[in-house]
Amino acid sequence: MRIQRLKRIGSRFKRFRYRKGYGVHSPFAFQLITEVIYEKYPYYNYADLESLRSTMSRNEGSLRVKLLKLIFRLVNWQQPDVVIDIGPKNNIELPTRCSKNDIHYKHLKDLASFKGIKKEGNCTDLVFLHIDAVLSHMKNSRETNGEILKRMLDLLFHNVTSNSLFIFSGICYNKEMKEMWKEIQQDCRVGITFDLYDLGLVFFDLDKNKQHYLINF
């Protein structure tokens, strides 16, 4: 974890000019960056979030409080009806529950379980996935990485709408994750993306110009 912390610090220096929406012309992107990603409003729910997180051991959750607060703000802004958390740990249950009481939250331990999820009605979805969940499939398969990734993205993106939001965790932690994030960005179903180093935000509204934003967060 110490190495990852040093990498994160180095990334912040490299991304210094990509902060607080400087140089961003898209109204949608500028609003998301300034009013959600960099929002400083002291939500009272933060106290509950910090209290619950402090009761967990360091090994129970891999997300830092800063990232949990961001996911809280994203859920609060997006107002999804359904949130799906894919991975061995229920990483975003805390910020999801703190942000919206009537939300339908579902935790799936692995990507294969996603096959059983079917979209109901005209709901807005938010999906959280650690890229390790995809990499683990690659390491245990005879298919090429490209074939597996295509199949996984077909599975994930099958039911997306223009209102869907996917959050990929760990997009810059190593070479494999960076390469996978690049493939995700280039997918024809993907619209605007935001690279926050720890997290990658993926939107699917193709009426907006496809753009990839690097953010110093």
List keywords for this structure.
seven-stranded mixed β-sheet; Rossmann fold; globular; alpha/beta; 41% helix; 8 helices; 217 residues
Sum this structure up briefly.
This protein has 217 residues and is of the alpha/beta class.
Describe this structure in words.
It contains eight helices and seven strands. The chain is of the alpha/beta class and 217 residues long. Strands 2-1-3-4-6-5-7 form a seven-stranded mixed sheet, sandwiched between helices. Helix 5 (93-99) links the parallel strand 1 (82-86) and strand 2 (104-108). The longest helix is centred in the N-terminal third of the chain and has 14 residues, at 65-78. The chain is globular and about 50 Å long. The two termini are 18 Å apart. The relative contact order is 0.15.
Helix content percent band: 40-55%
* Sheet with most strands: 7 strands, mixed
Q: Report how far apart the termini are.
A: 18 Å
- Percent range for β-strand residues: 5-15%
Strand order of the largest sheet: 2-1-3-4-6-5-7
As for the CATH topology, it is: Rossmann fold
Give the CATH architecture: 3-Layer(aba) Sandwich
Low-confidence segments, given as residue ranges, are: none
Please tell me the total number of domains. 1
Radius of gyration: 17 Å
CATH hierarchy class name = Alpha Beta
Categorize the overall geometry: globular
Q: Mean of the pLDDT scores?
A: 81
